Amino acid sequence: MRIALGLGNPGARYTSTRHNIGFMAVDHLAARRGVDWQHREDAVAEVAAVELGGQEVMLVKPQTFMNSSGKTVAALCAQWQTNPQDVLVVFDDFLLDFGRFRFRRGGSDGGHNGLASVLEELNTQDVPRLRMGIGSPPEGGGIIDYVLDSFSPEDEVEDLLGCCENALEKYYAEGVEAAMNSFNGS
């Protein structure tokens, strides 16, 4: 089983915030494919099965707060006998310009607490990820306030989500190397 793990925070207060772009990305995929989310109490998650790049992929939105997302994915990996290398973590990165993507095969958490939780619970840094650029806070603005704020009207979020869909199709069809070559920096 392949897993696309969107990182975000549950609840209406966070729905359209920059920090929830991972949730928004998997919500976009589920909506485009006409599938409904199913609640998994045993993993504290919402899940939806879709086809991406010719493969069955389980979209996952942990219903814990982001900094505890690893508990959800560890429970699902154990239940579905999924290797950490078959989990793709999709999340925000304020160090990337809005709309930029960066696929990686693995590595450190780069200071992202949600990814840190996933790596800790899966006990490896060999977890593929897609960082989605949300842009940097304005001069003198705080990072926390910025990421927990909604996107501005001039941000083309729908275009970003459409491009993310294309990137994930490429990733699942051809692998991380092809996705990196096609989308990193674009």
Question: Any key phrases for this structure?
Answer:
alpha/beta, Rossmann fold, 7-stranded mixed β-sheet, globular, 186 residues
Question: Gist?
Answer:
Helices cover 35% and strands 22% of the residues.
Please describe what this structure looks like:
Strands 2-3-4-1-5-7-6 form a seven-stranded mixed β-sheet. The chain is of the alpha/beta class and 186 residues long. Helix 2 (69-80) packs parallel to helix 3 and helix 5 packs antiparallel against helix 6. The relative contact order is 0.20. It has a single domain (2-183), classed as Rossmann fold (3-Layer(aba) Sandwich), CATH 3.40.50. The model has no long low-confidence stretch (mean pLDDT 95). It is 35% helix and 22% strand. The protein is built from six helices and seven strands; from the N terminus they run E-H-E-E-E-H-E-E-H-E-H-H-H. Strand 2 and strand 3 (45-52) form a beta hairpin.
Give the helix/strand layout:
Layout: E1 2-6, H1 21-32, E2 38-40, E3 45-52, E4 55-62, H2 69-80, E5 87-93, E6 101-104, H3 113-122, E7 129-133, H4 143-147, H5 157-174, H6 176-183
Parallel strand pairs: 1-4, 1-5, 5-7
Antiparallel strand pairs: 2-3, 3-4, 6-7
Helix pairs in contact: 1-5, 2-3, 5-6
